[in-house]
Amino acid sequence: MATETAHGAEMADHGAGQAEQASGLVFHPMDQFIVKPLFGHGDVGMFTITNVTLWLGLAILAIFALMVLGTSRRAIVPSRSQSVAELAYGFIYKMIEDVTGKDGLRYFPYIMTLFMFIVTANFLGLVPMSFTTTSHFAVTIVLALAVFLTVTILGFVKNGPSFLSLFWVSSAPLALRPILAIIEIISYFVRPVSHSIRLAGNVMAGHAVLKVFAGFAAVAAVSPLTIVAITAIYGLEVLVAFIQAYVFTILTCVYLKDALHPHH
Amino acid sequence: MATTQLAEDLPGICVDDHGSAIGMPQLCADWVPNQIFWLVITLVVIFFILSRIALPRIASVVAERTGTITNDIAAAEELKRQAGEAEKDYDRALADARAQAQAIGQQTRDDIKAQLDTAVADADAKIAAKTAESEAAIDEIRASSVANIEIVAKDTALAIVAALGATADQETVSRAVDSRMKG
């Protein structure tokens, strides 16, 4: 409902810019995702310093603060920040060990990098007026493709041609195997798509809904309700920010397991 | 390059005159190279921060903590064992002391009993001696009293005979008294 209204408002916007200002209801739920240069008003080239640069940089700083400055005392009895850093470490370490097995621990730094980046970027995106880097498909597709290519190459390097047995379900009846193989191959190549769209879609949808509700807050009659709704959705978004990072990471572990142990 | 040229001419393919997004900004191809470029740099930086500094540090801290905990538990086990041994020693010493005390008590009791027995025997001997002595004295007294009574009886009998007016020689009276006293 809300998105439909938003859509209507957008249409009106394109139709007549003046009419929108008169009505009082202004919906620009997607404006928060615009990439713009930090300095000046030029176009966005490959190396332009944009709001993307700013928020990616802040993600680096946040990770550095937590994982390096937070653990700088190397205390046996950890401080709060060191506890959080160790919690993140143990969380991912255990996840790889459980999902992928001991031999997956070689890739721990790579998976940790993915998780820390996504979870930090998601939470930074929840700061009001911020730009959410993980809401862009350009970002998540790079992450998902990196996982997909790494896993595929690793699978062939580790197992040789027998990596293809991933698609040959030997536990199924022989007649079904070719059909299953086609399904498996399709699902394998759909992986990076679902992997990336799941993350960006969840983050983008939540942020857009927040903006739509914020637009309704301009109407005095419904603004208390709207503010309650925004608060509730914000809470949900905090959950989504973590869960999507978790899901992305655990799927990476599952794909890695396929590369290391392709036999069903 | 072509897109750059286009973007300069127009207000922007993805943004309208008012600065609002046209459609989904996520699908704006103009911005993709910029995002990918900065993302790759970010990921590389994060990877080096984590793999060079953060992760080895946390791993060492965790390992150190595990080591410390293991050592502490081992030390605690050792101390517990020592405490158990000390308790056993204490129990043994206590039992020894108790047995010794009992032995000493018994010995003392025996000594006292022996002394007591000796003393009782001494006392008995003394009492027997005293009794014998007393009996001897009593016999002597009795004998002397019998002799005295004889003399008195003879004198009395002589006097009585004289008083009755008969003459009696001493010999006859004496014999008669003797025979009477024996009878």
Characteristic terms for this protein:
heterodimer; A: 264 residues; mainly alpha; 8 helices; 68% helix; globular; B: mainly alpha
Question: Could you walk me through the main structural features you see in this protein, from its secondary elements to its overall organization?
Answer:
The complex is a heterodimer of chains A (264) and B (183). Chain A is an all-alpha fold. Chain A has a domain of 171 residues. Chain A has 8 helices and no strands. In chain A, helix 1 packs across helix 2 and helix 4 packs across helix 5. The relative contact order of chain A is 0.14. The N terminus of chain A is likely disordered. Chain B has one domain. Chain B is built from 3 helices and no strands. In chain B, helix 2 packs antiparallel against helix 3. The radius of gyration of chain B is 69 Å and the shape is rod-shaped. In chain B, 12% of the residues are buried. The interface between A and B is large, with 54 and 51 residues.
